[in-house]
Amino acid sequence: MQPLHSFEWGDLLILNKDAVLINLGMRTSIEAIESLKESIFQEGFSEIAVIDLPKSNDTLHLDMNCNVVNANLVVAKSFVRHFPVQVLTAQSSCFDMVESFLKRHGLGVYWLDSYKTIPDINFINLNPETIIISKQAKPQQLLVHPLLKNKNLLEVDVTELEKGGGGIRCMTLPLVRT
């Protein structure tokens, strides 16, 4: 049972200066999102999309299932496309599908059909040319996309973090996307 106001940083994706995506994960409660909502809007974001992915070890955090690659591209496991998001604004709430929400905010989606390991998608885009990724990752599927093909992969040994159910991105929560 999760604590009433728990929030896992790996469940938060800052998409751009206008929107964030948050997962109601095993460690993130709706009460925590509600308590942070006003602060998020005060920081200048106009929309918060809340997704509720299945709660299991292989979907533990949002960033194990989708991640921001650069200013206009998100990579996501293909099953994510089937989940609606609840879009919160300061004045209202409505529902949308994740792909159309991302598109409305200028982000394309590269759907990954088969992903075997958790570290593969849990990475940090350090700058437009460089991704920091776990040495345990097998990023071959990432590198076939035209916007990822020329990325420099900086592999880091984060085996101990991964033993605890975390990875590079969910343990660091990068706030600036280049």
Ranges where pLDDT stays below 50 over 5 or more residues in a row are none
Tell me the series of helices and strands, N- to C-terminal. EEHEEEEEHEEEEHH
Biggest sheet overview: 5 strands, mixed
Secondary structure: number of strands: 11
Radius of gyration, CA atoms, in whole angstroms: 15 Å
What overall form do the CA principal axes indicate? globular
| Strand order within the widest beta sheet | 1-2-3-6-7
Share of helix, binned:
10-25%
Provide the descriptors you would attach to this structure in a database record:
178 residues, alpha/beta, 5-stranded mixed β-sheet, 3-stranded mixed β-sheet, 4 helices, 11 strands, globular
Structure in a nutshell:
The protein is an alpha/beta fold and 178 residues long. The chain has helices at 30-42, 98-104, 159-163, 168-172; strands at residues 12-14, 19-23, 47-51, 66-70, 73-77, 84-88, 93-97, 108-112, 124-127, 130-134, 152-156. The protein contains 4 helices and 11 strands, in the order ββαβββββαββββαα.
